Here is the input.
Amino acid sequence: MSEAASTRVALAKSTARIAKRRTNTRTTALLPSLTPLLHEWLPRQRWFAGKGRPVTGFSLVAATEILPLDTAGTGPGLLHLLVRAHQPDAQAHGDCYQLLLGVRTALPTRLTAARIGQVTDGPLAGRTLYEGLHDPRVADLLLERLRRPGTLGPLRFDRAAPIPSGLAPRFLDTEQSNSSLVYGDAYILKIFRRVFPGANPDLELPLALSREGCGRVPAPVAWFEASTPDTATGEPLTLGVLQPFLRGAQDGWQLALASLGSGRDFVPEAHALGRATAEVHTALAAALPTPALAHAQTRHLVAGMVERLEAAAQAVPALVPYVPGLRTAFDAVTALGHTGRSWAAQRVHGDLHLGQTLRGPDGFWSLIDFEGEPAKPLPERRSPQLPVRDVAGMLRSFDYAARSHRPWNPEWAARCRAAYCEGYARGAGTDPRSEPELLRAHETDKAVYEVLYEARHRPDWLPVPMAAIQRLATTTA
Here is the structure.
């Protein structure tokens, strides 16, 4: 029997066992037995959001044996855990993380790099714990679950279209805030690591765009969620989304860097990308509510920008001399609000840059990763925004690309920025440069965010957003 077939047999058996007795892993002994290993392993993961602060403890939200370890101990088991990590100066209840932990009696050599450690006591004493997504057997099991909609304890698996079986999995070791598996170069499964109550925008928005017939975003094929007893809102937690894998597509950031390196113009690509962004915005406005951003809401928007600027200036002293000039960008929007101007807000991408775009072999641009800025609370990421926020993010991305190349090529960035806005105007009917106060304020807000991020995580990159800060602090609308 092939490994894939044996996985399906084990899946059927485990489903029957769990349907009869639900799950036997959520015991008082499980988490304490895993805590020493998690204390060491979890903070080292790239997707762990609480770096720099000690973990003071863990609490178990939910535990499910997706694949119970067989009694002979010859095959892997798969534990699905939702665990809260408690840290000083964090939200009161702690961040909730999704863990898919493989359990084996002996770990094969090919999985050595995925090893977490050996459990010394509790229900898994003597077993070896490892990152399950690196195990093809476990990855096969996840796809089988998505192929067969239904519930398993607190987990619910849903499907929008048939999924073929027998697709070879491979783990992508490139993402920062999530983890992904590719199946047969046909589908990609994104596993959300830090999870929140409520629909994740990376499922919610692609589903809405699919209903509108927008082909710029891969439509979800399947997904899974969790309903947990400690969720005060009663909303499920989105855990993972399966979408078509855009075979042969190239990352927009890498394409831009290749253009710079070869001295080739990127204007046609930027123009087409602007049009693609406009098509996505138009479809989102048609699919979801578009509340008015009137004077009170404008005041709130500007207040948030000012608050972020002041907080960043306290953390990054180099920003302080530019604060008065940057404030004028926000004051200009406030002044517009006083005149009675209002705008239609809507759902947007929320974290748009060249790295969130893919161009197919035929030149067709797609937008991906609608999760928004992972550091922000989910309700904020799901709130309607002005479309110019996405435009500003892309304009900053062109500047980043130009400044990451030596020698710096400001003319390249300027041409791309103009072409992108022209392409956007072609697709939306409105040029974002026609409201310069809004564009400058949002680009300033984005640059301030970049300064804080680079100062904390990549100090060598700090001159890139600081150059934009100098320009924006002295530029009028």
Notes: Residues 436-457 form the longest helix (22 residues).
